[in-house]
Amino acid sequence: MKVWAIANQKGGVGKTTTTVTLAGELAARGYRTLMVDMDPHGSLTGYFGVEADKVSGGVFSLFQQESPTLRGQVIATCVENLSFVPASLALATVDRQLGAREGMGLVLARALADVRDQFDFALVDCPPMLGVPMVNALAACHRLIVPVQTEHLALQGLDRMLRTMSMILKAGKPTLPYVIVATMFDKRTKAAYQALAALHEQYGDHLANVVIPVDTQFREASRAGLPLSAHAPRTRGMLAYRDLLEELLNPTPVQ
Amino acid sequence: MKVWAIANQKGGVGKTTTTVTLAGELAARGYRTLMVDMDPHGSLTGYFGVEADKVSGGVFSLFQQESPTLRGQVIATCVENLSFVPASLALATVDRQLGAREGMGLVLARALADVRDQFDFALVDCPPMLGVPMVNALAACHRLIVPVQTEHLALQGLDRMLRTMSMILKAGKPTLPYVIVATMFDKRTKAAYQALAALHEQYGDHLANVVIPVDTQFREASRAGLPLSAHAPRTRGMLAYRDLLEELLNPTPVQ
Ligand SMILES: Nc1ncnc2c1ncn2[C@@H]1O[C@H](COP(=O)(O)OP(=O)(O)OP(=O)(O)O)[C@@H](O)[C@H]1O
Ligand SMILES: Nc1ncnc2c1ncn2[C@@H]1O[C@H](COP(=O)(O)OP(=O)(O)OP(=O)(O)O)[C@@H](O)[C@H]1O
Ligand SMILES: [Mg+2]
Ligand SMILES: [Mg+2]
Fold it and tell me: Is residue A241 in contact with ligand 1, taking CB distance under 6 Å?
C-alpha cells in the first residue's frame, strides 16, 4: 500500500479537493483506495455526508488506544473501491491533551500498517496547522503532496513551511519526497503566471508539470458528495487531475 | 478600544483579507488601529513584509511572560494610524506546550488591556484551527466576525463551529455577538445564490447585509503589501468592505 499525505499550513488551497479528486480517480481505475480525514473541521468527512460531530470513533480513537487499529472505523462511499476514515471534533484537542507524550507522531503509521493488505493507496487529508495530526500524516506517508495557490502571498509561507516540515521529520526520515501542485490557476490574471514562474524557479523538479485550473465543477461535485471523476469526468479540472495522477504514478527522481 | 476577532476554522475563506481591509479602512478614517496576527503561518505578518521566522518576540512572547505586555512588540506599517503585532512560528507550539496550563485563554485579553489607551480598534486575525490562539482571540474580543465562502461545503461546518465556539466561551462570557460575512461571492454561479439564501434562512440577523464579491484586486493589494483602501480605493471589493464597516459601526441588536 502506498501512502500519500496532502498538506499545507495555508488554508483553502485545495487540500481536501486534491485528496478527494485523486482518490476518486484511483478508485475509478480499480485501485482499492482509502482516504483518511485528519482535519478536526471534517471537510472530507462532510463531503461524503457524515457530520464530524456525530462521529464517535474515527481517526481520534487511534490516539486513545494502546495499539491503534483502523478496524471498525472505515466507512464505504457510494463509489466502488473508495472508502474513508472520518474525522471527529475531538481531533482539535489532540495537541493540548497528548502532544507532549512520547510516540504520538507514529500513531497513524502504525494503524495504516495494520490495513496495508486491504488497500492499494491511502490518501491522508491534513488540517491547515502544523500539529500532531499533520506530523502523523508526514510520518506515515511515502510522499507529500503540497497544493499551493498561484498567488504571491501563498508563496511567502511555502519555503518556511517546507523547512519546518523537514525539521519535524529529521528525527524520523532522511528526506521526504515532496511535490508541489499549483492549484486554482486563473489564466486571466498576469499575477498567476508570475507566481507560477516564481514557483518553477525556486522549486524546479519538485513542482508538478501539471497545473490545476480554476473550475466551478469542483464545488458542484462537493454539493453532490461525489468525487469529480464520478460527477463530471470530462471537465477541465478532472482532466488536469488525471494528468497529475499520471505524473505521480511515474515520478521523476526528485519528486 | 474596541476589539474585533476574525475567525473561522475553515481555511482560505478571507480571514486575513477581511482583517487587513477593515483595519486599513478604519485607519484611513483616522482611527488608531492595531492588527494582531495569531496565525503561526503568519499571512498578515507576511502581507506587511515581515517574515514570521525572523520574528523573535511578537504574539508568542505574550505566552512566556508573567504579566503579558505588548510594549515593544508593535510594528508600524507605512499606512498612517495602522500598526500590527506579528506572529512567529513558535505560535504553532502553544497548544502542545502550554494548552493545559491555567489561564492560557486570557493572555491576549490582558495584553490588550495594557494598550487600550493607545488604540481605538484592535482587529485579531485567527488561524484556521480551534486552539489556544483562537480561544485567546474569542476571550479578548467584543465582537466576532466570521467570513464564510458562499458554497455548500463551507456551510456544513459553520453551525458546528459556532456551537463549539460558544461552548469554549461559556465559562467566560454570557454570549458573544457574532456576525457572518459572505465572502468571495461569485454572481455568475447559481450555487452562490443558493448558499446565500441558505445562510440567510439559518442565521437571519447574524448575517451581514453586505456581501463581499470576488475581486482580483485583493491579490494585487497583497502583492503590494498595502490594504485595499490604500491600493485600489474605488474597486468593488473595497466599496463592499466600506459598506460592511458602516454596518459594523452601527449594528442591529442581534449582531
Ligand atoms: N481548482 C479549483 N477551482 C475552483 N475551485 C476550487 C478548486 N480547488 C478547490 N476549489 C474550491 O476552493 C475551496 C477550498 O478548497 P478545499 O476545501 O479543498 O481547500 P483546503 O486546503 O482543503 O481548505 P482547508 O485549509 O480548510 O482544509 C472549496 O470550495 C473548493 O471547492
Ligand atoms: N473577495 C475576494 N475576492 C477574491 N479573492 C479573495 C477575496 N478575499 C480573499 N481573496 C483571496 O483568497 C485567498 C485566501 O484569502 P485569505 O488568505 O484572506 O483567507 P484566510 O481565511 O485568511 O486563510 P487561512 O485559513 O490560511 O488563514 C487570498 O489569495 C486572497 O487574496
Ligand atoms: Mg481541507
Ligand atoms: Mg489567514
Answer: no
